[in-house]
Amino acid sequence: MGEAGGSSRDTQPPSVEGRSMAVLYGSETGNAEDIAAELGNMARRLHFQTTVDEMDGFKLADVLRASLVIFVTSTTGQGDMPKNALKFWRNLRREKLNNTNCLRSLRFAIFGLGDSSYLKFNWAARKLRARLLQLGAIEFFRPGEGDERHDNGIDSIYLPWSQELKAAMVADYPLPDSVRPIPDDVPLAPKYSLELMPSSSPTSSLPSTPSAPSTPTVRMDVDEAAPRAEDERMFLASRTKSAARSHISNPPSAAEQAREDWRRLNVTFPAHSARADGSWERANGRPVDSLDKDNILTDHPEKYLLEPESPRIPATPPADLLPIPDTKVAMVVGNDRVTPPDHWQDVRRLVFHVQLTPRDRQVLSQISGEMVLTIWPKNYPEDVQELITLMDWGAVADLPLEIKSCPRGVFVDRSGATLRHLLTHNLDITAVPKRNFIRELIFFTNDKREKERLMEFTRAGNEQEFYDYTCRPRRTIIELLRDFAGVKIPFRRALDLFPVIRGRAYSVCNGGIDLKTPREDDRFTFEILAALVEYKTIIRKPRQGLCSRYLKHLAVGTEVRVKLSSSSGPALVDSPAEARRPLIAIATGTGIAPIRAVIQERAQHRGAGDTLLFFGCRNRSADFYFEREWPLYPNLIVYPAFSRDNIVPDPRTVAGPDQNGTGADFSGPLRPDDILAAVQYDANKNYVQHLIRKHAEEVGALMRRHPIVCVCGNAGRMPISVRRALLDALVISGVVANKDEAEKWFSNPENLTFWQEVW
Ligand SMILES: Cc1cc2nc3c(=O)[nH]c(=O)nc-3n(C[C@H](O)[C@H](O)[C@H](O)COP(=O)(O)O)c2cc1C
To answer: How large is the average pLDDT for residues 213-225?
Structure first.
């Protein structure tokens, strides 16, 4: 069996001697990886011999071999390096490298991806850059820091940055007169090889698909002189606008569209800033009803509730077990919805049994921090078939393939895998298409109008249009290919074009006895709490995340591959002494998962310390997870904050907006004006931060006893508001005299262990 997950480097022979570039990325969810691929293509067009790989796929010594190295990394956790860059980072930080100037021959540039709502904005890129410079590396171009919070997300910074970078590369590494850069309208050579097995021949003749031309000219096959029919002229006139709407069966009237356009013009979109200070709600007397940039309505999701589910359950994906390294086979023994059927969100508790050998157990026992279970979703057969039909791949879809090289993360038995198998198990055909993907499609249609529309999406200056067509409605790759019916991708290019399905990591939500004691046959129980991503987008199309759809219909009895690993956090209960420390836990939504595991783990120890749990959810009746379980723990007090149960909060527990709009900011007793502002600001809201202030004396009492403090749940405002409330509680309970002291006290690890996991 040839597992093909490791061979990811894309290289092509150098056209010009002595020009080589490595693009090394660290990426959790694929954004940095996409940018690295784009930069790699840019370098290939400038005739650099190019290698694109994750940082951990590279040795430090290899880095010195390239003329140029571009680092692209996102930041994860709390200012942490992504997992696939950790090994590289650890190597780089070795003490013995200090003062050696060992990277003096390295010329590099760095682009970071981050989100400025996090305190440690772009820290991974900043740390990496500082260390590279410390070790003598030379930065040949200014660093770039992309921010998810910008109107067009990372692209707002990335696109101009990459254009300037290209200019710098051209200036620093001029091509000989006889060599020209490869123009954008000429396809690059394929990176991965996918061929039919020599013995197999299609049952019917292969479809005639426009394949990438080998000469640098692109044919425009549409007859320019042919008279255009009325609808064709309309089509051309509206171009991308019609593309954006073309799949809506009942397009809005002009008046409706004008209203919608007006509304959009007047809404700050993404609506983060409007939400951040509550200005929209105050000015309009109604909630923000635009989507955030991921199109996920965190504030008012019920507006986009899906209609009651249709009784038809699609044929589920085949249960083939892929050769994924370092994984175990897990049996699904439970898959239950834990929220009521009329609640807006389907949250599931999935229970797995995993057989572990004594060696596995030993490895797992060395895992520090909370445990994470990674699962690899699959595509549904009907989606795969639709793509096969759209691309005219019917004749080859079930023939055995010869796969000589493939991207990292494609786990496939190389002998005899079929295209249908790859599309089902490995390629993310329902992902939102990235710019790189759309750019490549231009080469695979002969329809001039389609070419024009596709080019328009990728042209600099059209980011908003691209965003409106792809991310905003979360259009899938299949939908895009439906819109552009003339696009016929040769099957050989499938590995080059489609993104790879990534494993999705979930916090394990059980701990203690289940994880320590096997059932019969050395089977251990692991549970996760998964909030399924299902909503309607701005264009009212129902959407489901790939993994959500997969988990929703994952039948009991199915075997799946899972990876068990540790979260980035510290070990919280690794000894009886640790278990005796007090715990202040704050969780919202499914952020309760790792906290429950910690509470269960502590309960195994005699004399487990006192625990205060502040849990934020919407309604007592809908999403107060594990409600019946909490009374079983003797040292646990739970304060649930039901944000939608119309509980009027105690004015003493809320505070007025500070200049950042992030909530409380007081260091002494509240004055009447503060109270009035506070009540108006937070009227009818009941969040965890309010309860922390309300129970400040109890919080303070535990704070005095060297507690563990955990915050888990939604990213964005929650962690900031919670931190402020904890600082306030320190002042109110008299642990410290004022806010400045509270800041210092809270940041001192001698006073507490702090762990935060937000997403
Ligand atoms: C769990 C989580 C933690 C994050 N932590 C940070 C952070 O500490 N600082 C930051 O600037 N961005 C942070 N981000 C934002 C990511 O860096 C950003 O979304 C980036 O585009 C992700 O790129 P990737 O898909 O390559 O990992 C975090 C995102 C997630 C989901």
So the answer is: 31
CA-to-CA distance for 347 and 548, rounded, in angstroms?
10
pLDDT attached to residue 216? 31
Residues 274, 345, single domain; the answer is no
Distance between CA atoms of 424 and 36, rounded to whole angstroms? 26
DSSP assignment of 707-736: -EEEEEE--THHHHHHHHHHHHHHHHTTSS
Cβ within 8 Å of residue 711, ≥6 positions away: 586, 587, 591, 718, 719, 722, 723, 754, 755, 756, 757, 758
Which residue among 76, 122, 502, 757 has the greatest number of ligand 1 atoms within 8 angstroms of its CB, and so is best to mutate? 76
Q: For ligand 1, is residue 31 a contact (CB within 6 Å)?
A: yes
Say which CATH number the domain at 653 has.
3.40.50.80
Q: Taking all residues of the chain, what is their mean pLDDT, rounded to a whole number?
A: 80
Domain assignment of residue 459, yes or no: yes
Q: Is the Cβ atom of 78 under 6 angstroms away from ligand 1?
A: yes
CATH number for 479: 1.20.990.10
Q: Tally the domains of the chain.
A: 4
Sign, CA torsion 228/234/238/243: negative
Residue 568, ligand 1, Cβ within 6 A: no
The pLDDT value given to residue 495: 95
Percent of the chain predicted with pLDDT > 70:
75
Cβ atoms of 524 and 353 within 8 Å: the answer is yes
Length in residues, the chain: 759
pLDDT for the residue 533 = 80
Q: Are residues 426 and 284 in the same domain?
A: no
Residue 657 lies in a domain: yes
Q: For 267-276, 379-388, 452-461, 622-631, which range has the lowest pLDDT when averaged over its residues?
A: 267-276
* ipTM tops the 0.90 cut: yes
pLDDT band at 356 (very low <50, low <70, confident <90, very high): confident
Looking at residue 560, its pLDDT comes to 97
How far does residue 123's CA lie from ligand 1's centre (Å)? 10
**How many other CB atoms sit within 10 Å of the CB of residue 749?**
7
Same domain, 293 and 405: no
Same domain, 298 and 389: no
- Which two three-digit tokens encode residue 654? 């809320």
Tokens of 124: 């991974």
Question: Predicted confidence band at 649 (pLDDT cuts at 50, 70, 90)?
Answer: low
* CB of residue 77 inside a 6 A radius of ligand 1: yes
- The reported pLDDT for the residue numbered 278 is 59
Same domain, 355 and 289: no
In a domain, 430, yes or no: yes
Higher pLDDT, 300 or 691: 691
User: Is residue 353 domain-shared with residue 421, that is, in the same domain?
Assistant: yes
Probe ligand 1: pick from 71, 115, 121, 471, max atoms within 8 Å of CB?
Answer: 115
Domain extent, residue 113, equals: 20-172
Strands 144-147 and 107-114: parallel
